[in-house]
## 1
Amino acid sequence: MSRLPTIVHLDADAFFVSCELSLKPELRGTKCAVGGRERGIISSASYEARACGVYTPMPTKQALKVCPDLILLPHTAGIYGSISRKVFDLCETITPHVQRNSIDEGYLDIGPCGFKTIEETERRVRALQKRIWDELQIPTSFGIASNKLVSAIASKARKPRGFTIVIPGEEGAFLAPLKINVIPGVGKVTEVHLQQQGIRYVKDLFELTETKLKELFGNGWLDMLAMARGEDDRVVHTEHEDAKSYSTQETFGHDISDFAEIERIAKRMVDELMPKIREDGKRVKTMTVKVRYPGMENSTAGKSLNEASDLEAPFYPLLSQLLKAAWTKKRPLRLVSVRFSSVEEKGAQLEMFTQTDEKKRRLAAVLDKLNAGGRNSIVSHGHQLRGERD
C-alpha cells in the first residue's frame, strides 16, 4: 500500500442550488431550494433550508409547510451540465485520471502526479477546491484516501466545504465510529433492521460471530467485513461512460388536459435536450414520452427514427403520435417527460440531404451558443413563445 493517499473523491455541495446561486449570489445564506411550486418536488436544498427540515426529494407543498419562508428557485435549463463539465475540466488540470461519476461527483487518481508528502497532496487538492469556488462559485467537499470507498465516505464526513484525508493504514480506524449507513448498500430499511440487532456503528460488525454475519448478510458477509475495514480495489476509470440517454420532465403546477399545451411543453423539452446532445458530439435515434396521471400512474410510448439525428426538427412530428399513444386515458395529466436513447457518435452523415442538415446544424450551433447559460435570448420555434416552466 502506498505511503500517501492517492484517490480523491469530489462531491459538490447542494449542486443544483449552488448552480442557481452562482447566478443569484444575493441569495447566498438564505433558505432556498430548487423545485417546482405546488405540485413539484425539491431536487436540491441549501444547507440553511435543510436545517429547517427540507430534504430531497420532498414534495414542494410539504417543504413550504416545514419552512414557510423557503425561497423556491426554478430549474435553469442547460446550466447544470455546463457547470459540471467546467468543474471536471478544472480537475483535469491536476491529473488526467478523472472519473466523472455523475453530474456532481467523481474521482481523481493523483498517484501519477508524484506528490512527495501528505502536505503537498493536501495543498494541491485544496488549491483545486479553491479554484472551483473562485472561478465557478460552486462549493465542494473532498475526501482523500487510499481507495474509492474510503475517499467517497470521507468527502461526505464534513460537508459542506469539507476536506478529509485518511492516511493509508488508518481506514478501519476512520470508519469504525461512523454510523453503519455509510457502508454502500445499507439503505434506510437495512439500517433499521441492523439497529434492531444492536448494530448502529461500523465497529459493531466486528463484534458479531461468523454465524450471525451469515444470517444478516448471507453470502455477502465477507464483502461487508471488507468494506467495514475500508478495503476496495476498484480503479479510477479515466474514460467515463458515454451517456446512454438524455431526459427531462416537468411536473405541472396544476393538472393539464389541453393536448396542444402538453405538446408545446414536450417540444420545449426537445429544445432543452438537443443542445446538450450536440455539445456532447452525439446523435440519438429513439424518443420516449412518459405521462403521469394525478394518481401517480405512468404510461409511456416510444419510437425510433430511421437515422439518428442531433436536430430538433426530425423529432417534432413524433411528439403528437407518442403523446396520443401514451395518453390513453382521457384524464388530465400531472407530469410529462421526454427521453432520448439509442445514442450514437456523430460520425459521418449518411443521409441524402447532408448539406441541408449541416446548414441546419450550423444554425443550431449558433443558437445554442447564444442561448447558453439558460438565458434563452433567441427564440427559434413558435412553441417557445408561450408560457414559462415553473
## 2
Amino acid sequence: MHPADALDARIARTGSIACVGLDPRPDLLPAALAAPHRAASLGTDAVATAFIEANQRVIDAVADRCAAVKPQAACYEAYGLAGWAALEATVRHATEAGIPVILDAKRGDIGSTAAHYGQMAFGGAPDLDGEACPGMGADWLTVNGYLGADGVEPVLAAGGGAFVLVKTSNPGSGELQDLELADGGTVADRMADRVAAWGADRIGDCGLSDVGAVVGATYPDHAVALRQRMPDTIFLVPGYGAQGGSARDAVAGLRADGRGVIVSSSRGITGAWRGAGTDDIGAAARAALDAMNTDLDAAR
C-alpha cells in the first residue's frame, strides 16, 4: 500500500494524528521493569532486552489510539548489535500491531550508499543468490535531503516513504535553514520546493505524497508558510511538549481540509510514568497519549 495512503487511513481509523516516539534510555525505564533484566544479564544485552519489553508494553497500550510510532535509531545503535536487535524487535512488534513505523535515522548520502539506507529500512538488498533480503520493516525513513536528489531518490526506490528535513525544531536550525538566498526565500524554503518536486509524481489516492517533510512545532509561522510551498506533503512535526511547542503550534501546518500533519512526542509519552506515580509504563503512556490526542483535537 502507498505509504501516504496507509498513514492517512490509519489517522482516519484511529482519529489520532499523534506519533509516539520510541526513544528508550535506561533512565526512562521504571525500576521494576529494569530489575529482572539487570539480574539476568549484564551490559548491552540487559539494556536491549529491557528496551524490548518497555517498547512492547508501550506499543500494546497505544496501538488503537496513535497514527504511527517513531523509533529513534541512535538510541538503539548506541548499544551495538544488541541494540540493533532491540530496534528490529520493536519495529516488528509495531508492525504486527498494525501501526505504521517511521524509522528516525536522518540518513544522508548519495548513490549506492543512499540505496543501501533505503534497503536497510524497507528491504531489497540482494543476498548471494540475488534474492531480496528483508530490511528493518519500517514504512518511512527520515532523510537529510541537503545532498540533493541523488541522496533522496535512491531511498525512495527501495519502496518506502521519506520524511525529509526541512525546518527542524532545534534552536540552532536557523543558523543554516533560515539563511536568506540571493534570489529570495530561505534555505528551508528551497528545500521545501525540492520536497514538493520530488513528491509531485508520488501522490497516493489520498492526495498526499510519500515524500514528507520534517517541520518543527517550535516554528509555527514557518509551518504556515511552508504549507504553501508543499500543499500535498505530510508534515512530521517534532517539538511538541517537552521541546516547548504547543498543540496550536504543532498543527499550524495543517491543510485546509485538516489533513497532512502528524505530531511526534517521545519522552512525554514513554516517560510519563515518572510523573504519574506508577511503574506501569504502558498505562502511563496510554494516559499521556489520550491527553495529547485531546490537546491536538482541540487545537485542530
## 3
Amino acid sequence: MNWIKNFVRPKISGILGTKRDVPENMWVKCPETGEMVFYRDLEANQFVIPRSGYHMRMAPEARLKHTFDDEKWTDIALPDVVVDPLKFRDERKYADRLKEARAKADRKDAIVAGRGHIDGLEAVAVVQDFAFMGGSLGMAAGEGIVTAMFEAADNKLPLILYAASGGARMQEGILSLMQLPRTTVGVQRLREAGVPYIVVLTHPTTGGVTASYAMLGDIHIAEPGALIGFAGPRVIEQTIREKLPDGFQRSEYLREHGMVDMVVHRHELRATLSNVLHMLMRQPTPAQAVQLPAPDEASQPEAVPADTEA
C-alpha cells in the first residue's frame, strides 16, 4: 500500500477543495523526439511541440476557441439518441463504457458543434473528440453531425468539420454503419444549399469516417503528419504482404498523390480557413475589406463640357 498516494494526497486534496485545470503530469512528452514540454507552454502554442512541430491532439473547446472570432461561439444543441440499443457487451457492458466516457469528457458523445464568426463571416464548426472512445462514429455522433449540417444548410452558412476518429463504433453494429449514408445525405443538403463544406483532417482520421463525410468536402485540409486512411498501414501490409512506402497514409504523402488539397500548419489554419471561406462565399477578405481613403478632390480630372454644337 502506498501511504502517500492513498492517504496523504487525498487528504490534501480534500483540504484544498480545488479542482486542477491541468493534467496531473504537467510535462508532456513529444511522441517523435521525446522532448519534454511544460503543459502551459504547449497549450499556449496551440498544442504544437515547439521544436519538432509535432501536432498533438486538441480538445473540441480549444478547436472552437482558435477558430472563431474573440474565442466566442454559440453551442448547437445536439439531439439525444437511444443509449446502448443493442445491449452490447464484451469484457464490459457498453452502457458502462459509455457512462465512463461521458463522465470523463463531461459531454454526451464525441461531437461538439458551434456557430460563430471567422473574421466577420458567420460559419458552423463541428469537432470530433478523439478522447471520447476514439472519436468513434455511433448514433449520437452521426445525429450530431447531421444536425450541424442541416443547421448550416438551413441558414446558408459554410460548415467546417474537424475530423478525428478511429472509425465506426463497433458496439452499435449496423446502427453505427448506417451513419455513413446518413451523413452523406447531410453533405448533399449542404451542396443543395450552395454553401461550402470544408474538412480539416487531423490525426488520426480512419475507418468509416474516411469512407464517408470526411472525404466528401469541397476542400480538404490536413494537419502535418496526420494519419489518414481507411484501414491502418499494419493491416494493409499484412494483407498485401509488401512493405509500404515511407510516409504512406500521412498528410504529405496524400497531398502529393492528390487525396488532400493542402497541408496547413495549425498556426496558419485559421487564416487559411478565413481566406478559403471568404473566397467561396464571394465575400471580401479582411485585407480586401479595408477602406481606402477617398481621393483628393483637387486630384480629380476636370469634367469635359458636353459639345453644344448641333
